[in-house]
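Would you mind writing out a protein's amino acid sequence and the numbers that encode its backbone to help me picture the idea?
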Amino acid sequence: MDMKILYLIKSFANKAGTERVISDKINYLAGMGYDITLVTYEQGQHAKAFELHPSVRFVDLQTRFFTIQQLPFYKRLFSFCKLRKLFRVRLQNLVNEFLPDIIISTTYSIDLLDVILSVKTTSVHVVESHVACFSVKKSYEHIKYPLLWLFRIYDNYVLGQLRKCHAVVALTEGDALEWRRFNSNVRVIPNPLTYYPKTVCSQVGTGKRIICVGRLNKQKGFDLLLEAFSLIEAQCPDWHIDIYGDGGEKEFLDKIVVDKCLNKRVKILAPTSSIYDEYQNSEFLVLSSRYEGFGLVLIEAMSCGLPCVSFKCKYGPEDIITHGKDGLLAHDGDVQDLAEQMLWLIQHKEERIMMGQEARKSARRYDKEKIMPMWKELFESLVKK
């Protein structure tokens, strides 16, 4: 396969789900013979989060937009415009050198999509969605802001750029419906599993640990998880929760743990590169997100034989979990219901083990050998056109 792909993302420094998926896909494609350059623009001197195939070229454009956030408004605006221009020049130079057949960016870079699309090239442009469409909008974040109409104009401009792209890839059918308002060619390709364990720990069903994984931010809803657990912790005194992740809400979450007297029951741990081992040392996983792009941790845990409890949030959990068969779904944002679903799974050991066995079977749907051919077909169809 003699196809060149330029993959553009903000950074490749966090040991998180999106970075892991991107590395998995890039490594798979590189192994198939694709010529791939991974381009970041806010990486700086940080080490790469995950190992890449030896043939993958890695370049950072050194345009770190986040560094200007603390500047006064006018200085920030001037610096932002200057960085955008520098970003375009450096990207154009790289494109001229590499001559990619396909340029892939993600919805995390949608603020720069107009600049990316202004680069002179004959490349096909694909945008990957890793978050729910509605969450991309600035007006969603500033719903009570007095100048909301300005953010709506901004949203319309930014999202309108998607019409110029050759394709948008969504992770779920529900999210695809929303993206189709901005681009008619939306494909649904779920995230692949990093790997499917050949065997799983035979001790599942004997421990009393609940595992949760994700960035420590508002989206992941760990505050809701702690509230839910506080409602049932007296009924399951031997059980505890381990949360793996880092982010801006750690101090906030630590305070909740203290305020609710959960110090001996809840630990917030740093991300680990051996998360699959941690899954296999747990009884079940809880996903308490307010919204998702997919819910990668669900299929990872399921592949290890863990049932999952999740809010039925937009989007992903409802596509992945079959309620009562391989996991449990709580009403979106309903803390009381989440607590009840967790408690049911805690109190029903035999059913929990059987759900875990079904979960492992269900996770096979997301094997790389089933997901990656979808990408191959998409690339070939776009380049052929």
